[in-house]
Specification:
It comes from Gillisia lutea. The protein is α/β, with parallel strands linked by helices. It has 14 helices and 8 strands. The protein binds phosphoenolpyruvate and manganese (II) ion.
């Protein structure tokens, strides 16, 4: 699939002067809930109402969605508010029911994108329709798998496509429920600039206080839209309670976000600059995270050296690291002088850490 301009035509038809906003509850719970939330969102920047009908739960025993019944509630919400609707489909049966109930946009969830078999079945079920399909990133940080799902749909003649960045799971817990790994989405955006890219800060964050910052980063990186979980009573939501926000909070967030428009030469320069700076900020953040990880390993080494009464500084090991890193640095376009300075500083910090541990 080369970059095809038509991929984003569905989005242009919205004719928006702001990013596309998709909002609504994690799950449809009751008819009253779906319709009420739709009404609270309708006079805002939100164009599309989301609600999960079939919920993929990591472990059984949790609320698994209301099923096809909820599709009727979404139809009612659409009739009453004029908003478009979207839901997750995870198999051909879901596709059939969603089509029957006139859902406008379908999304493929993170746990489905990982399975080429199921994605192919969904693509086949959609053949011959003109639905818009949004593909969430797979749960694991694998760009090919993400692209592969988009390609399967494209090959089945689904040309109205987009992707949703919802973060990636990791064994090590961070402040995020799913790590953003912005670089993966940026790589995808560079490869397919005309494929609309939407951020789902709710599933990245897992908690509502991070949603604003994540959304602002996405807009600084020229994302095309946001999908944000919204509920009138977030704390009592039947799924993903901690990450949902009220429609009023969402409307305030949309007001506070700095939305960049693509106009004027000078402004284009400013946009590019902001975009690149956002990328630098992400890279710097990763650098610090990696350095901190390295120091923690060094602390572990300090502990075992202490047990065995071994000296901190081992010159031969250090020279070996340095030699390897200078060569590798050269291959990556970094000067010997820089690599040397940087590793000396890292090594010094490592020694300081170990000294502290040994003297404890
Ligand atoms: C959702 O959007 O409610 C959902 C289940 O998302 P994901 O597939 O990203 O986990
Ligand atoms: Mn959810």
């Amino acid at each position: 699939m080369e970059n095809k301009k038509e991929l984003g035509d569905w989005l242009k038809k919205f004719n928006l002067d702001h990013p596309l906003v998709i909002a609504g509850p994690c799950s449809a719970e009751t008819e009253e809930q779906v319709v009420k939330i739709a009404h609270q969102l309708k006079d805002s920047d939100v164009s599309v109402l989301r609600a999960g009908i079939w919920k993929p739960r990591t472990r059984p025993g949790n609320f698994e969605g209301v099923g096809a019944l909820g599709l009727k509630w979404m139809q009612t919400a659409k009739e009453e508010t004029g908003m478009l609707t979207t839901t997750e489909v995870a198999n051909p049966n879901h596709v059939e029911l969603a089509l029957k109930h006139d859902v406008d946009i379908l999304w493929i969830g993170a746990r489905t994108t990982v399975s080429p078999f199921i994605v192919q079945e969904i693509a086949d079920a959609l053949k011959g329709t003109d639905k818009t399909v949004l593909v969430k990133n797979p749960v694991n940080p694998d760009l090919s798998l993400w692209l592969g799902a988009v390609e399967r749909l494209y090959t089945a003649d689904i040309k109205n496509l987009g992707v949703i960045h919802r973060g990636f799971s990791a064994y090590e817990k961070t402040k995020y429920r799913n790590n953003p790994e912005w670089q993966i989405a940026i790589d995808l955006q560079n490869k397919f600039p005309d494929l609309p890219l939407i951020l789902d800060p709710s599933h990245i964050a897992g908690r509502r206080d991070l949603i604003f910052d994540l959304s602002q980063t996405a807009l600084d990186l020229n994302y095309d839209g946001l999908m944000i979980e919204t509920h009138y009573d977030p704390d009592n939501a039947w799924s993903d309670a901690a990450q949902q926000i009220t429609p009023a909070t969402l409307i305030q967030i949309m007001k506070d976000l700095k939305i960049r428009k693509e106009v004027g030469e000078n402004e284009e320069f400013q946009n590019n600059l902001k975009n690149l700076r956002a990328k630098i900020d992400i890279a710097d953040h990763q650098l610090l995270e990696t350095l901190s990880k390295r120091m923690k390993i060094s602390d572990e080494i300090g502990k075992i050296k202490k047990n065995q009464n071994v000296a901190i500084l081992q010159t031969s090991r250090w020279n070996e690291i340095l030699g390897k890193m200078i060569l590798e640095g050269e291959q990556q376009g970094l000067s010997e002088e820089f690599v040397l300075k940087m590793f000396k500083a890292i090594h010094q910090e490592s020694i300081n850490h170990q000294k502290k541990i040994i003297s404890e």
